[in-house]
Every structure is written in structure tokens, then in C-alpha cells.
Specification:
The protein is an all-alpha fold and about 110 residues long. About 65% of the residues lie in helices and about 0% in strands. It has four helices and no strands. The longest helix is centred in the middle third of the chain and has 26 residues.
Amino acid sequence: MHSSVSVWLLVGFAVFAANLPFLNERCFAIFALQRFSLSKPVFIRLLELLALYFVVLGLGFFLEAQLGNRFPQGWEFYATTLCLFLVLSFPGFVLRYLVKRRGVRHE
């Protein structure tokens, strides 16, 4: 696989994975949480977001190893990529918590 294709594949998957916790009520879009009847709590969404960050990180390491040598990374790399992943999740957060829903009455 060409390096630019793998980079765009990783970026696209990261955008999808970062927004996934906010766009559905299932855990990892697979498991239904029957304990919480209305919606997932925020802490479960954040734990899911953190787990998906590690999935994207693993995919990035795998694609890097397929292209050649995998380079060692320091803590700065992980802090930066986590912050970037949180920024990528912003559209899903806005749709879930900041956009007013028409036709829903809060009493």
C-alpha cells in the first residue's frame, strides 16, 4: 500500500472512530447497554472514546510497520495524538450535546 493511501485511510478511520461514541447509543456501535434506558452516560462515552483512540493508535502502528521501520515515540507523541483525536471528536460532541433538537420538550 502506498504511504499516502495509508495516511488517508488512518485519518478517515480516526474521524469515524472519534465521532462514533457520540452518534449512537450502543457501546462501540455493537453492544446494547440495557442498564441505561435513555442514553449512554458521559463517562461511558469518554471510556469508549479512549478505547477507540488506542484502536486507531494500533492501526497507525500497524500501517507504519507495513511501510518500513517503526520509530520509537516519546510521551509527547501520545499527548499530541490524544489531543488531535479529541479535536476530531468535536463534531459528534456538538451534535450530541450542543445542537437543539426540534420537537423535543424539556419540562
